[in-house]
């Protein structure tokens, strides 16, 4: 089963340039989790799956921590989700986009996507 949260929008302070860390920027996060939550299809019980709100709260908490690299933020999000649901999550796929990055030109977004597959789930 795939659980997805799309286009979560945050204002955060990620970037290698000093101005990015002072002024901040808008970011979009997409996340996909592969999990064995088939029981929830039958039970209609939240305890048989992973709460979307809990996923959002993890992403929100990690986005609040300023980082130089988007890669680092993605890695932290993946690690936090895996730590929370280690036995349930088979894979985590995170895409983090910085909107209108300060490159001195018209760039819609700069993005990083990282996917990790876990053996333990």
TrEMBL record:
Gene3D superfamilies: 3.30.1130.10. InterPro entries: Dihydroneopterin_aldolase, FolB_dom, GTP-CH-I_C/QueF. It holds the Pfam family FolB. It catalyses: 7,8-dihydroneopterin = 6-hydroxymethyl-7,8-dihydropterin + glycolaldehyde. Its EC number is 4.1.2.25. Residues 3-116 form the Dihydroneopterin aldolase/epimerase domain. It comes from the Bacteria. GO terms for biological process: folic acid biosynthetic process; tetrahydrofolate biosynthetic process. It is an enzyme of class 4 (lyase). One of its GO terms (molecular function) is dihydroneopterin aldolase activity. One of its GO terms (cellular component) is cytoplasm. NCBIfam families: folB (TIGR00525), folB_dom (TIGR00526). Catalyzes the conversion of 7,8-dihydroneopterin to 6-hydroxymethyl-7,8-dihydropterin. This is 7,8-dihydroneopterin aldolase. It comes from Porphyromonas macacae. The gene is folB.
């Amino acid at each position: 089963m795939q659980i997805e949260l799309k286009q979560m929008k945050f204002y955060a302070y990620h970037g290698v340039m000093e101005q990015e860390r002072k002024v901040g920027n808008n970011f979009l996060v997409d996340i996909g989790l592969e999990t064995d939550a088939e029981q929830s299809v039958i039970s209609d019980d939240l305890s048989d799956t992973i709460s979307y709100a809990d996923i959002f709260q993890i992403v929100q908490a990690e986005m609040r921590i300023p980082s130089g690299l988007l890669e680092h933020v993605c890695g932290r999000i993946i690690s936090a989700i895996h730590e929370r649901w280690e036995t349930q999550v088979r894979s985590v796929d995170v895409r983090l986009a910085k909107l209108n990055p300060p490159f001195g030109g018209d760039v819609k977004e700069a993005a990083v996507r990282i996917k990790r597959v876990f053996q333990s789930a």
